[in-house]
Amino acid sequence: MKLLQIIFSLFLVFFPTSNGALTGNESAANAAPLPVVLWHGMGDSCCFPFSLGSIKKLIEQQIPGIHVVSLKIGKSLIEDYESGFFVHPDKQIQEVCESLQNDLTLANGFNAIGFSQGSQFLRGLVQRCSSIQVRNLISIGGQHQGVFGLPYCPSLSRKTCEYFRKLLNYAAYEKWVQKLLVQATYWHDPLNEDAYRTGSTFLADINNERQINNDYINNIRKLNRFVMVKFLNDSMVQPIESSFFGFYAPGTDTEVLPLKQSKIYLEDRLGLQSVPIDYLECGGDHLQFTKEWFIKFIIPYLKQ
């Protein structure tokens, strides 16, 4: 018996990994990549082959073996599309939280990419859904301080867009409009900040502008990194600096304050002072980026 123990000990000395254990480098090389969760924007769906369907495929091609979840709100693609206009963000976030926390493939954490309004919805998810663990939060063309204007609206018809604009311009903070139209929940009127803070049923809450929710702060601080992408020729986000968490100075619709000059940052109302933030720019219109740009600037965050 002692002879067998000696032989086994010598075997481990000369062949330390032959028992199936991996060294640190081998573990890193063979570890499965972190999953990725995608949240689409207004006028889009989880799986259209010309939008998020192609992004999902691109990520899978660039990172073999990765698990990609493209979020679908509701039970069908039609419901998913309509959710971008008519399902309140609170309800969407609750549905997604329940879905993701029960997905065992995401139990060890995941990276998340939001497109347009999906960006602020994902941030709301991070802040409200403590049972999940998002590592890198990537916002592509998001509106983190809201919008004050809807110059371009990817809806089914021009008449529908005009109707939306009128509602937002004249009645954004009416309760029935907040319940009816998703875009009203992140409409931010800098000329009437009191009405915004009182009437906004989503953005003012997740930005901690009414009262401080410490869970929001603590959950944001768990992020490894917060990445924001701004499109330099964006014809949809107004002001475009909202994609970098900037916005008009209170009382004006001309002067823009960057994030680090805003009350949200200076008073650390969201814990953003403790999170590494990357600001990326893309020269196109709203969500108009090339495959090459995505591979160069976004894929590296998914490989970390």
Automatic annotation (TrEMBL):
InterPro entries: AB_hydrolase_fold, Palm_thioest. Gene3D superfamilies: alpha/beta hydrolase (3.40.50.1820). One of its GO terms (biological process) is receptor-mediated endocytosis. The keyword Disulfide bond applies. Residues 1-20 form the signal peptide. Pfam families: Palm_thioest (PF02089). It comes from the Eukaryota. One of its GO terms (cellular component) is lysosome. Belongs to the palmitoyl-protein thioesterase family. This is Palmitoyl-protein thioesterase 1. It comes from Lutzomyia longipalpis (Sand fly).
